[in-house]
Amino acid sequence: MRKSHGKVAISCAITGAIHTPTMSDALPYKPEDIAQQAIDAAEAGAAVLHLHARHPEDGSVSLDPEHFLAFVPTIRANTNAVLNISTGGSLLTTIEDRIKPSQVISPEMSSLNMGSMNFSFHGLAKRYESFKFDWEKDYIENSDAYIFRNTFRDIAQVEKTLGEGHNVKFEHECYDVGHLYNLKFCMDTGLFKAPVFIQFIFGILGGIGADLDNLVFMKRTADRLFGDNYQWSVMAAGAAQMPFATQAIMMGGNVRVGLEDSLFLERGKLAASNAEQVHKISRIIEELGYSVATPDDVREMLALKG
Ligand code: KMH
Ligand code: ZN
Predict the structure, then answer these.
(1) ipTM, 2 decimals?
(2) Which atom in ligand 1 lies closest to the alpha carbon of residue 111?
(3) Looking at ligand 1, which atom is closest to the CA of residue 113?
(4) What's the 144 CA to ligand 1 centre distance in angstroms?
(5) Which are the contacts of 223, defined by CB distance < 8 A and separation ≥ 6?
(6) Which domains, ranges and CATH numbers included, belong to the chain?
(7) Pairing relationship of beta strands 82-85 and 48-51 according to DSSP bridges
């Protein structure tokens, strides 16, 4: 997309499934707050809104489609943004449960995680007592709790149900270089058609680290595997969020920000909202001489159903 339009698409991941409301007052979990933050993020320049739901009472993760339906219509009524519903769910939930919200909502996009892995936001352990890991207890005795299962069968089931069934296009979440090869393999078997949209993800323990060499490596590998048949975006967890997004802009990519991925605006300063992060990356895009893509630009770029 950058080659032809000089535009950068911003995705904003509004609340996710990992951070807890105790970590930041800004993290939305009530439906009206998720809706308002999503609307504000869209007004600030986010073309794509990546959405998870939470239980409104305590902010714990929910895969209940009703909890999604408590905010999706408001967002649809008040923005032109592309809705992207998570199929990540939470660890140890079945793929059937993870797909359900997207089946009910039939969004233009859903996330699709491209491989099984150990998954931990280990960076949070430095700051939050509730995330302090005990190596023996958590990672050895209880290590199954960290499995993020995304087998080829799971991936095919998401495609069959949502791709074939609802004409949903995917944000292919690639947490490591092997996931790019998984995606290529799936394309070669005919499961996915070009162009695919790949989210390069950095800084999850279990995936590739947030080192700039790795961004170059992921990009070079994707160029080799997919040629012109892909669009890409970058998401880095925690403190690496803004630096990696900036680097992605300079390399011709798109960006993802949002409180799902980092609670901070800059080192030591919590973001007041998702929109604050979107404003910041929008400013950077413009300062670097590019412009912010609209939702319709993204619809064209990814041939979404609209
Ligand atoms: N939480 C991120 C590391 C999903 O929702 O499918 C990736 C993610 C997964 O957004
Ligand atoms: Zn997500």
Answers:
(1) 0.95
(2) 6
(3) 6
(4) 19
(5) none
(6) 2-301 (3.20.20.70)
(7) parallel
